Amino acid sequence: MQILRVHHIAIIATDYERSKAFYLDVLGCKLLVEHHRAERDSWKGDLALNGEYLIELFSFPSPPPRRSWPESTGLRHLAFAVPSVEQARAELLDKGVRCEDVRIDPYTQKRMMFFFDPDDQPLEIYEV
């Protein structure tokens, strides 16, 4: 098998419109296409990030909450590279996004910080 790259990241939202607004208006993704899947009572939107990454945003009726704390098996978080963690954090806070304090990665000595989408999905900004 030859893996070329990561194709997409899928995220399930409890409120499709609220999460779509977060990923578009707060994080700056672009909506490529969206479909209502009536047979599943579900929305699927393809969101582009910088023309390189694809986030599939889904909604389903009454999805179970994501177990984050304590740490659980599976995908932990999605991290975004930024030039300045402090600047990104200030912009997120101005938009009402819940953010943790800035930390230093103990292995790389780079600044990083976690923040949360409308469903408390942990997201990270990492200074490069």
TrEMBL record:
| CDD domains per record | VOC_Bs_YwkD_like
* Gene3D superfamilies, per database record: 2,3-Dihydroxybiphenyl 1,2-Dioxygenase, domain 1
Taxonomic lineage of this organism?
Bacteria, Bacillati, Actinomycetota, Actinomycetes, Micrococcales
Q: Which NCBIfam families match?
A: PRK11478.1
Species of origin: Cnuibacter physcomitrellae
GO terms assigned for molecular function: metal ion binding
User: Pfam families under this entry?
Assistant: Glyoxalase
**What is this protein's name?**
VOC family protein
Record keywords: Metal-binding
